[in-house]
## 1
Amino acid sequence: MPAVFPTLKTGAVAQYPATDSNQFASFVVRFLDGSDQRHRQFPAPLRTWVIKLNMLDETELNALEQFFIAQEGSVGTFSFVDPWTQTTFTNCSLKQDTLQYAVQGEMQGTASLTVMENRV
Amino acid sequence: MPYFPQLSSGATGQYPVQKRRTERTIINQLPDGHTVKFADAGAEQVEWQLTFQDLTDSEIAGLQQFFATCEGQLNGFTFLDPLDNLLVWSEALNEPAWEASTLLQFTAGISDPNGGTGATTIVNPTGSDVSVQQSVDAPGALVYCFSAYVRSQNGVSISLFRQTSDASASNIYATQAAWSRISLSGSLNTAVDSTTVGIAVPAGQSVDVYGFQLEAQPAASPYKSSFSAGGVYSNAHFSQDALTVTTTGPNRNHCTLTISAR
């Protein structure tokens, strides 16, 4: 059973502002006459979500850090629920090998994680 | 091994604190988007940026002296993460890190005050008080707060304790039917580099426990679960060779320190 991306105490995965994107990969050959020929490299786009979190308490930050440790950065795979569509993506990874968070005061923690869908 | 000093308040750091945990992954990305990944566990690193403000002259002198002792980045020291639980396996009392009598009975998977099932019921069927304890390679002389959530249907009196080979402190708490958080705070007059904390369960009684946490500060912060690694870093180093101190008035000094550890 794959790991699951941790939720906040509210049950939410993400906060505003949240970003998601679709990644395509196109191979473009350009010719001298200005025309081009294009090939699709990815069979389907890969989704990426940027999760920016703030006003977290230390328990929530700790849950994120433990998750990051368990994933060994970008190595591990886990299940992620798209916060827009509630679709479950069963094979995702973190896109980063560094987790940086700051604690400005009590319940004022900030962190950012980028989740990417893996090609299955 | 020298250890990072606490401020006069007993705290290791002040807000804001930044922490950065870095892993290294070798990734081979194929044209169709598939990836082959390998973890490079040896490259793990943790880094803290501690910003200190309004330190007294004696506090900043202590930091400067410690920095000089370490000769900047050269020599290592023990650093206790101010953002982490110093204990390991905080919810797994059956792990070897916890020392307990084989006569004690543990039942894990009990509902906990945070909505999970991380609590444990401890039953002491013997005729004498029995304890569960964990030792941490952290200097005994620092200020610590050892905390845990407890409950019991019988109003059992349990005790938390902290001890080294030559000093100890403990306190007795009456448990309630609802979860309550109890804590034992203070420092010990000792020079020993190891600290043991634990809970003693009275003879013939049972108690539910959850969320053991040890922190190098005077009061308990929100509970942070821990697994195989705690917040004790026995070979930390400064990431800088110069310590710049700014004095903004009498007894008002500030500086920023960056510490890294593996």
## 2
Amino acid sequence: MNKLLKYALLVFSTFTILHSCKMKTTESVVTGTAATKAYVAPGEYDEFYNFVSGGFNGNVSVYGLPSGRLLKMIPVFSVFPENGYGYSEETKAMLNTTAGQVPWDDQHHLSISMTDGEQDGRWLFANANNTPRVARIDLTTFKTAEILQLPNSAGNHSSPYLTENTEYVIAGTRFAVPIGEQQDVPISSFKENFKSTISFISVDKDHGSMNIAFQIILPGMDLDLSRGGKGPSKDWFFFSTYNTEQANTLLEVNASEKDKDFIVAINWKKAEEYVKSGKGKKMKVEYAHNTFDEETQQAYSKIENEVTVLTLEDYKDMVYMIPCAKSPHGCDVNPTGEYIVGSGKLAALIPVFSFDKLTKAIAAKDFEGDYHGIPVMKYESVLHGEVQKPGLGPLHTEFDGNGNAYTSMFLSSEVVKWNVESLEVLDRAPTFYSIGHLCIPGGDTKKPWGKYLIAYNKITKDRYLPTGPELAQSAQLYDISGDKMELILDFPTVGEPHYAQGIMASVIKDKSVKFYDIAKNKHKYVTMGEKNARVVRTGNRVDVYMTAIRSHLAPDNIEGVYVGDEVYFHVTNLEQDWDIPHGFAIKNNPNAELLIMPGETTTLKFVPQKAGMYPFYCTDFCSALHQEMQGYLRVSPKGSNVPLRFGIGESAPGVAVK
Amino acid sequence: MKLTKPGKVSIIIVGLFISTLWLFPMWDIQLGAPQYPDGLSMQIWINDITGDVDIINGLNHYIGMNTIHKEDFKEFVYLPITMMVFILLGLIVLLLNRKIYYYIWTGIFIVISLVSFYDFYMWEYDYGHNLDPNAPIKVPGMAYQPPLIGYKKMLNFDALSQPHIGGWFYLLAGVIMVTMCYYEWKKSKTVAL
């Protein structure tokens, strides 16, 4: 009996102890000071602008750090009915491609322009994955200024990355595809016909305008994330590659066969010289080039039809392959420009290569073979060392400027801090859950601000209040100013962030445009002053020159428009003060609205299908009498003889006896 | 009787002080409201109005106040002429070198000042009371006369009216002249005839 009791007691106490063993939860991960570190008091500003890629929403979102507050959505590759981007006559052309107007894309990566390897905050470059394009966003107006389509590419994922002084924006193709005249080939002819293209887009120093300077054609493989060199390595560019097995089906298995893929090192300076000296061929291919002209406030789309291409015969000494473990996803260069970190997403270690060793090995011709004619370096000759047992599934590395590297581990759902020189693992911080990429403001430049790190995760599950099956992506903010990483904020993000850039607010905030000077408005259909508001008919096209000022639209009574007319409402916002936008919408218009900033002119098209009365109004709450800011458009049947008349107040048709 | 040395010097100083009216604004009006975190302001010069005049005009139309335009003010023609003549008169007083002319000169200054302030007050009165009957926002019995000097709250706006640099120098000039008159008069009692 005693034994049984003892036994029962033992079992009971075991269960009690096991039950009271709880695993570490978030509550125990966050310390008391986290709240003050993440809090930005009312009336104060965030320290950093955080530009975050929108992923499958096609836009770029802007957050403030450390508060994690959403400041703005910048429409880039997707139509944005909220402000008429992609709908207004002025912005439609931005989304033009050789396949017509494409209303959506997949936006993955961002790069802030640099001068001498430091962020200068002039432009933000963004890539479109699906219909390969690179966009340039003006950071004084936070508007998309230019979109350039990329020929000979597919799945523009390895993009956009910058050279140290923003001489070039580099965009690499993800999918190898057949290029040139004959593209209708069997898929299984991958090894013979499919090629990988890297585009080198030149950026004008003063205006930022982009042009494809040249493209380099490589043997077919998947190109993944890439980085420009810095300092000693500034003339070089490094790409991670996978599927060097050259599989075209079931890549999950077939592209993971080889133990090592490569990091492709390209001496772009040499490539530039080759092109200057006349090497390379001119290839006929069409691609769209769209620019938004701030003066005329109009987007223009041009179809380019030629590109300069460098192929294997042209380059003997500008491309080299460095073996890198297991399908590398990322390739990152530390602030000194000496170390190149390869993140093999299926590898259990992180190889770190030395640029100094690379140049020496190239000079000594220390090769272990070639890959379709490209010299392959001997792994040990270029290796600085390997970080052992860092975690599982390394994807992306950034730096804090104090000699430390931070790598995201997708499979083990953590951020790992390690020393670049000693390769010693210093700290781990869990992420919730399954981090993809991370961002340290300036962490990919010569001058990182080693204060904050943001983890962008792929799995959200229970982090926030549930919102049905489709959830926002989760992000965590860490304070990395001390020895150990400290979690200070957890916040949801819009779209799916793949990558982000952060910059000190002071670099941008004082240059931010408050409103447009109406005296500089050179829009073709601008209305300078209310007395010039009018309606003009040319055949079955009607142009309404409308002004908006608190609190009326002029003209606000329009008659003599017929069914089937193409009516263009050109609305000029006459205000010249901060934060007084006006909106415009008209009933039953299968179109979006307009948001017009002070000093701007924007156009909405309307083709009435039925006779009747169509009210229009200001859609953006602008003043105490915003509700009174409205008008009527009378549409008469086609062929009727209602005369064209317009006006406001005393000049409204019908008020004055004619 | 002849002017004292300080008396003669004061004419030069007063002339210089009044000349600052061409370099700096005379008067400053500050407006504040919650929606304007940076505030609004207007500066009145001897021959111009500067500052956020366009924005103030835009707001004014809601309550039916007249818009402010430089061209509407004849004062911007008369005032510079008047001040230049006054300074010239001062130089004449200096040449003639008699106390009596100094007293008259100060008297003229006081008259000009009173007329100017009265004119400013009347303009502000008209501006604040003579409202457009069709104004969108009508508050019964409300008038928007800005303060002549000092603070006043009008609807959601705080208004502060005060001299600007030029105005301060002008007032200082007046103080010097009046003080000098008293000094001259005192001195005239103690000088042997």
## 3
Amino acid sequence: MYSSAIIEETVVRLLREAECRLPPDVRRALEKALSQETEEVPRSQLLVILDNVRKAAERSVPMCQDTGVPVFFVRGRYDVRIEESIRRAVYRATEEIPLRPNTVDPVSRGNHGDNLGPGMPPVHFEPTGEDHLDIAVLPKGAGSENWSALKMLNPSEGVNGIRRFVIDCVVGAGSRPCPPTVVGVGVGGTADMAIALSKKALLRPLGSSNPDPELREIEGALHQQLNSLGLGPMGLGGRTTVLGVLMEKANCHTASLPVAVSLNCWAARKAFARVHPDGRVRFSQEGFR
Amino acid sequence: MSPREITSPMSEQEARSLRAGEIVFLSGEVLTARDEAHIRALELSREGRPLPFEMHGRALYHCGPIMMRDDNWKVVAAGPTTSARMDSLETEFLRAFRPSVIVGKGGMSLETLKTMGEIGCAYLAFTGGAAVIAAEALPEVLGVEWEDLGMPEAVWRMRAERLGPLVVAMDSHGRSLFHEVESDVHSRALLL
């Protein structure tokens, strides 16, 4: 039903856009951060970041040398050829953009140089009955991915326990995930679902309002609290530690309260495409709502 | 205050004159080494065998670049990687090979800070992800060793032209901006 060639071309373009152009919501958040910093060191970090972002877009080169592992989120009617087209697109993008060959065997550490291999790239598929196919890519660098965390809380720890865990994650990661970070939080589900939700949360635009009023309130409180820590850009001190907190939830077992945190570096890369069966494709870096 | 200009290779005395909080630009010879290159260099050193490159007095760059080859190698993107991954290897590496400065991101442990004091080495924090700014300041690839480790893990010898701005974040006098900020962050976090 969808043409494999169109999906492959679309995914190559998605990867190029995500790697070379910072999404507008993230750029706006960084500009706002610069306007709020007064000291020389944090200002110097944000100025370099914004200059780097501008030059990457002008030259169509990746903004960061860690082009990450491209995590895909696909919604539509299942077709086994979709994953095959995505793999071919990753292979091509690795040469054409180019992307850094990042994927290795976890034990031997052997690198085939093509960003593929067993399990790569990860594709989260959500089947729908809609005619169009939505493809999102979230290239995830290791600097931030290495601070991913899951905790199975006691249900009695409640909202305060969730809040405490997120703060502990940001404090524990410190300077290493390239702050100011975007904080994705997954609450509920099973352990594996909570982690997937914390990644999916990173796709929502910064500054958008969470449709769930309780999550909206926790997001706001955490954003303010995390920015009172003083960690600052690149952990060198300052007022901006995070660019935003984004949460997703799912129901969970009555005896469980899973909470997962996925941090995204300031280079919070993402790109979206909507592919229609007649071959039309729309692109966006803030998603389709 | 205009930022200070420094050049690699540099003397121990000059490396010791770098003080935490200063902003500098670095020119001259820069060598990349990440986890795998640290491991291989230390294996050779333990066996008493020489390295295929000279590290003494040079700038060690924690970086896994994207390179492209037409006639010569060219730097496409080359921002710093997380230095903390090299902490468990760095004390032995610093003692064996004596670089004058480390360029990286995120800072290193108190143990590494102590060794930096011992040999006269400063840690220069470069903005994580500033890959295009870095590539611009690395106009020439002088050579590559250990390509079998893969593009990010190989040792790339490059010539820098005003790489920066770099913040002297850890100096040879025992000061570390990262640890100062971290300690403030921990005390504030307790109040939340």
## 4
Amino acid sequence: MLSSFFFLAAAEDGADAGKAIALALGIGLGSLGAGIGIGNIFGSMIQAVARQPELRGELTGIQWLGFALTEAVVFYGLIGGLLAYVLV
Amino acid sequence: MRRALAIVTLLALTLPSFALASGDEETKFDPSEEWNLHTWGPELKIGPIDMSINKAVAYLMLGTVCSILIGIVLMRVKPGRGPNRRQALGETIYEVAQVQVAEQGLPTKAIGRWFPYVATLMVFIWTINILGFIPLPLSDERWHVGGIGIPTFAIFAATSTLSVTLALALMTWVFTHIEGIRENGTWAYFKSWIPDVPKAMLPLIIPLEILGQFMRLISLSIRLYANMLAGHMLILTFIGLIFVLENVFLAVIAVPAATAFYLFEVVIVVSIQAYIFAALSAIYIGSAIEPEH
């Protein structure tokens, strides 16, 4: 299923090309959003620690929680893309 | 020592792909083949439930044994003697589980009852995740040496199958509602789902809140599953590129890239996902015991 992912799927079949586009869009747009979100989290963390260094310990837990929650968004896109690729 | 470890890791990463290359030359390389679970031994079926053993079950059993060993070796220390490194490590794990996971989500009165559950979740998921990045001879492919089929070394995590993570998420989900009903009473608990909004908004809000409870189940399971699946697939795909495009020189790019992803997964993702799963379980159970409204 994924081996045609490496070669250009368009060469084989038009429908495969559509699926490949769906997979790529799912991952690509998902990572776009998550990239902005994760950048925001770490940027805010740097600012917060620069202003109040004594809060670092308490903030670290919240930071990783936010990181994991945001990062998961990519994988919802990935799973959606894979579903489109495999099932449709 | 550290350099030797790095070289061993690098070599270990290429092992699964050598196994694939030594197989049938006609078959195309396909990373998703790793997730086709073949039954080992006889099929054990109890009614509609399939109880037969496959690769994921073997990894789960191994993970169970290892997490029990972590508890026994690191945390059962005779009192009286001076603390050693083993005890210090055990206490670090305990402290993370208590301060970072349990006390963040659970109210004080519920810590005694639910701390064992969330701490077990954390250690268990961490163990399965880390076992998924150690090459173990538990793969479905056989390497024939003198007529004996030896399983090839491969990396596979039980948490990269949806059934495992969904079962873990279901446990948290069921416990959440049982605990909410027990502490607040049935009517009061279900009423606490609905926030204070004008009456006209209620037909819109109530279905959304009920849907939100089910979305927790989905997001909790998919997060862990997709993280581990994507990590393994990335590593396999990078190594596999050498064999798909049949060009040895690609190894110059593919192997360092795969190693970088491998280190990222082992150092960050494995621990973060175990922590997140346990912390969110604690938050969900805690918010059911003491609803804000």
